[in-house]
Amino acid sequence: MSSRGLALAPPAKNVVVYRNGDPFFPGRKFVVNQRRFLTFEAFLTEVTKSIRAPLAVRNLYTPRHGHHVAELGDLQDGCQYVAAGFEKFKRLDYLNHGRKELRRTRNSKGLQWLAFPPQSFTAAGILCSLHALGCFYCSVFRNGDLLSPPFPLLLSKSTPLQWDILLAVLTEKANLCSGAVKKLFRLDGTQVAAGEELVNGDYYVAVGNEEYKKLPYFELLVPQDSASRTLWYVD
């Protein structure tokens, strides 16, 4: 067959997808090509799983103006989008979710979210900020999940934290497919029984009623030069 008879496949597109109405979600990268996604519905299904959307994703919007994206061909390489179900597009500053001064926002359960300024987006910068706030942090993986990066858990040093409250906080943040977080494990498979056993800067795995799955969480999900941009804690 001559080269003229070969149909060139469209080039792959790299896009970033945010969760509708979530100002703290850092976005998830996707590589979109015909070999991986034959239809727009297949892409939306993958987005639903990867961003851990509470409901099935049915619509994509542009992040600044909320323009609706109807098909794979509308996606532009290097662009960002917001994933939603059947609810309306929520206009937020998705692209600059971490570029604000340090601030705290309390919700009904007493959780405080911290957004760090760009100059602190290094491990050293975050540790300095935490030390000044009288806090320590650890990072938590989801049991059996090798697609989602660990989420940071920031705890106040001054206030003792009851174990059942900590598990409730982990349940809200982890959003495990198996339901509520019942146990917490170290990466070597040993179980943590109390908040006092947590070590500053260490990594843990949140587990439901199922057994702990010993997997290479750290090796696969933690880039050596990365630092979490959004942290939260209970005080």
TrEMBL record:
<feature type="domain" description="Doublecortin">
    <location>
        <begin position="140"/>
        <end position="218"/>
    </location>
</feature>
<protein>
    <submittedName>
        <fullName>DCD2B protein</fullName>
    </submittedName>
</protein>
<dbReference type="GO" id="GO:0035556">
    <property type="term" value="P:intracellular signal transduction"/>
</dbReference>
<dbReference type="GO" id="GO:0005815">
    <property type="term" value="C:microtubule organizing center"/>
</dbReference>
<dbReference type="Pfam" id="PF03607">
    <property type="entry name" value="DCX"/>
</dbReference>
<dbReference type="InterPro" id="IPR003533">
    <property type="entry name" value="Doublecortin_dom"/>
</dbReference>
<feature type="domain" description="Doublecortin">
    <location>
        <begin position="13"/>
        <end position="95"/>
    </location>
</feature>
<keyword id="KW-0677">Repeat</keyword>
<dbReference type="InterPro" id="IPR036572">
    <property type="entry name" value="Doublecortin_dom_sf"/>
</dbReference>
<dbReference type="GO" id="GO:0005874">
    <property type="term" value="C:microtubule"/>
</dbReference>
